[in-house]
Amino acid sequence: MQIREQIKLVNIALSGTLDLYRIWAKKHQLNYNALVILYTLNDYKKCTQKQICEWWALPKQTVHGILLDFEKKGYITITASTKNKRERLIAFTENGEIFASSILNRLYQMEENAMHKLGEEKRKQLIESNTKYYELLKEEIENG
């Protein structure tokens, strides 16, 4: 198989995986971006809008709009950072944790089931291969 075909297959798999998250979000009356924000807040407990934007390559306005909606619904609090007053820390409220759990708990279970089915060795290979490909591609793009 030619390298271009291999790259195409990797990109199809990555894109398809992300699309599964879009489908899950839609089933819960959310869009993909709102889902990844919930996912991030659930993983990190507190983070900044800037971090969310950087981690998911999302536009600042998109994240800001979703965060305002979540704040209006009482799902999150936005407070000034003690280290940098210009920076705002985002965290779930109790209602936000309940809301996020109602969407994420089943998703986490399905992710874990899929990973268990892969087996320990393939999980290790998946992580190592994806990480190494990311690092090499990043290096190429930064130097390219």
From TrEMBL:
GO terms for biological process: response to stress. Residues 1-135 form the HTH marR-type domain. InterPro entries: HTH_MarR-typ (IPR000835), MarR/SlyA-like (IPR039422), WH-like_DNA-bd_sf (IPR036388), WH_DNA-bd_sf (IPR036390). Keywords: DNA-binding. SMART domains: HTH_MARR (SM00347). It comes from the Bacteria. It holds the Pfam family MarR_2. The keyword Iron-sulfur does not apply. The keyword Isomerase does not apply. One of its GO terms (molecular function) is DNA-binding transcription factor activity. PANTHER family: MARR FAMILY REGULATORY PROTEIN (PTHR33164:SF89), TRANSCRIPTIONAL REGULATOR, MARR FAMILY (PTHR33164). This is DNA-binding MarR family transcriptional regulator. It comes from Longicatena caecimuris.
